[in-house]
Amino acid sequence: MIRLGIVQFGPLLGKVKANIEMVNNLILSSPECDIYILPELANSGYRFKNKEEALKYSEEINDSEFLNALMSIANDRGAHIITGFCERAENKLYNSSVLIGPMGIMGSYRKLHLFMDEKDIFEPGDKGLPVFDTPVGKIGMLVCFDWMFPEAWRVLALKGAQIIAHPSNLVLPYCQSVIPSYALVNKCYIATANRIGKERDLHFTGQSVLASPKGELLLKGSEKQSMVLHETIDLSLTNDKYITPRNHLLDDRRTDVYGDLMMSEDD
Questions:
Q1: What would the pLDDT profile of 152-162 be if each residue is shown by its tens digit?
Q2: Residue 208 contacts residue 220 (beta carbons within 8 Å)
Q3: Less packed terminus of the chain by CB within 10 Å, N or C?
Q4: Residues in CB range of 262: below 8 A, 6 or more apart
Q5: How confident is the model at residue 104 (pLDDT cuts 50, 70, 90)?
Q6: Is-contact 163 138, C-beta < 8 A?
Q7: Are 74 and 101 in contact (CB under 8 A)?
């Protein structure tokens, strides 16, 4: 059993110190959790005017004031933190998610499916769909609009993900209602950490959610309030992939008809 926390708040555009303070205050005022999941682009805010502004507010993973602060929190609490991150790498930008453990950075993922004007700012992700084996379970990561593509969830499930962390800045009204279905059909926990508030012309929908391998909605946040939602979860539920005594979620797939996603991932 582990306790999972979803940190819902509204990052401020280009205000890394203020964003650190908000995250720190929210986590310190909440019950201790084994995993905390933050929204998309939590270090920088989201609605950039152009690529130049995004570059100004970006950070490198190994030289980041924001990630250093999260590493300190993770170390103090003996926790793992997953955060959305505006990543600069060799003058390229990626909409990334970073996994931090008590001893430091454990890995990262770069968003595969870019939404609207993100296509003018970020490079498409080039790290595939990694799953990280941690002391608090096998963790996969997706970012916001990746939710629309069921293949991504299934690949992570095939790789053994028990928890899929989903940092988000959702503006459309659909995702939160779909997440329990994805959790059911992949028999894993899914935690969508969405931001709140308004940034320039965009309104974000909040309502962060946690869904169980049984398709249950375990947590749902408010539309407008900063908060840490938390729940104790049983990872052993993710090991049972049977839907009925004779139907196995993964073994019953007809890869002879529609192909093998894992072969595509390996390619």
A1: 999 999 999 99
A2: yes
A3: C
A4: 155, 158, 159
A5: very high
A6: yes
A7: yes
